[in-house]
Amino acid sequence: MGSRKCGSCLSGLLIPLAVWSIIVNILLYFPNGQTSYASSNKLSNYVWYFEGICFSGIMMLLVAAALLVLESEHSHGCCQGENCGKKYLTLLSMIFSVLGIAFSGYCLAISALGLVQGPYCRTLGGWEYAFEGTAGRFLTDSSMWSQCLEPAHVVEWNIILFSILIVLSGLQVTVCLVRVVVQLSKILCGTYSVIIQPGII
Fold it and tell me: Distance between CA 17 and CA 105 in Å, rounded?
């Protein structure tokens, strides 16, 4: 019972993380609250991967919902026999947790690439990725940020929001990974039998 409550807490934690990922990703489309840059496609290409909205957001909400259903008191009624129910609950829980790692890992990777690439902005030479060839050095050298003339403060906007997405998706990966480790430990340490012996049911 205690492990199930712990699992429910972990699964429930995925919900606010997913909601915040959606919100943060949406904010990336509106530098300084302006909609004109999104409508004219003058945003970083990594913003259009929908990493926070779809993968670390909507897909993670579905994963969390599935895990909460699996951990509910009524989930054991899916088949006859206690070991049978635990077997399928464990396998399904691990599958959804691994999917969660994949979805949040995608968001983590894309957000990191977007952070290192830097924003798409207007410079003296026109619209371009002003920091694409700096290998991320601009992140610690604020004197370079003045190269971006428009949108205003877009460098800070991208750094803050992509960093938040990295943290949120990193927490999601951690939660799902912990769930996988817990389920594996139940199997490998013999908390219950996953293989149904003949004659048990």
Answer: 14
State the average pLDDT for the chain: 87
pLDDT score at 85 = 61
- Residue 168: inside a domain: yes
What residue numbers bound the domain in which 102 lies? 2-188
Rounded mean pLDDT, 142-167: 96
Number of domains the chain contains? 1
**What are 61-113's pLDDT values in tens digits?**
999 999 999 888 555 554 545 555 677 788 889 999 999 999 999 999 999 99
Provide the whole-model pTM. 0.86
The dihedrals phi and psi of 167, each to the nearest 5 degrees, come to -65, -45
* pLDDT at residue 45, rounded to an integer: 95
Q: Is there a domain that residue 88 lies in?
A: yes
Q: What is the 3-state secondary structure (H, E, C) of the chain?
A: CHHHHHHHHHHHHHHHHHHHHHHHHHHCCCHHHCCHHHHCCCCCHHHHHCHHHHHHHHHHHHHHHHHHHHCCCCHHHHCCCHHHHHHHHHHHHHHHHHHHHHHHHHHHHHHHHHHHHCCEEEECCEEEECCHHHCCHHHHCHHHHHHCCECCCHHHHHHHHHHHHHHHHHHHHHHHHHHHHHHHHHHHCCCCCCCCCCCCC
Question: Is residue 195 domain-resident?
Answer: no
